[in-house]
Amino acid sequence: MKIFIVYAHPEPKSLNGTLKDVAVSHLESLGHEVIVSDLYKMDWKAVADKSDFQKSNPEERLRYMKSSNEAYHNGTQTEDIAKEQEKLLWADFIIFQFPFWWFGMPAILKGWIDRVYAFGFAYGTGKYGGKYWGNRYGEGNLQGKKAMLSITIGGREPQYQECGINGYIFDLLFPIHHGMLWYPGISVIPPNIIYQADSIDESRFSQQLNIFKNRLSTLNSTPIIPFRYQNKGDYDDEQKLRNELINGASGLSIHLNHNFKDDPKK
What we know:
The protein is about 30% helix and about 15% strand. The protein has helices at about 15-30, 65-75, 80-90, 105-115, 170, 175-180, 200-215, 245; strands at about 1-5, 35-40, 95-100, 130, 130-135, 145-150, 185-190, 190-195. A hairpin with a 2-residue loop joins strand 4 and strand 5 (about 130-135). Keywords: Oxidoreductase. GO terms for molecular function: NAD(P)H dehydrogenase (quinone) activity. Belongs to the NAD(P)H dehydrogenase (quinone) family.
């Protein structure tokens, strides 16, 4: 497989840095092609603004979505954005390696999403209106690719269980899994998570490393999270889940389809 690692941590000697290095060496030993975007090393520009468009008019009011669409289709995006898009199109599988800071991804990685996910590339594709509302949630230009989050968390695992004070981890990750990955068509496998990352000792690190390597060895055979497709009948004309499918349930889990086929093209 062609595997693209998007890595976001400012310290190369961090646990995240080690996991990134382990991923590269282990995946290459299995015969995969691997490329890495080390966002801090690249000094990635995280702020989305007018400078993202080579032909922007400084006197004109910025409409980022409109400018993004024009720049993507006219080939006038900045080179850094275009290169990351090429990596995404090249990849069969994407791994996002980052620490879970303040209930989300580091700002530099969010800025990568903001800028790389151009209109016409990751969203704004297909027909909009009526029963159909774009090629999104299981469809789109990135359909057929898979991804996994590899994250570290400072807190204890019980704090992130369904009754945990911090909230259920799968609910907290929903905006990334469902919104940033499934939205443009990327299928998602369950995350690899290391809890209490700041207090990990050598014994637990060794154990977690073995778990991580096993996850890396089974990327393509691990069942994906069964999110529902937007355009295959589960949602009504307002893109609301049909009442008969809710069946008394509540919360974000209603967007899971347990009859889902593990094939993004079906």
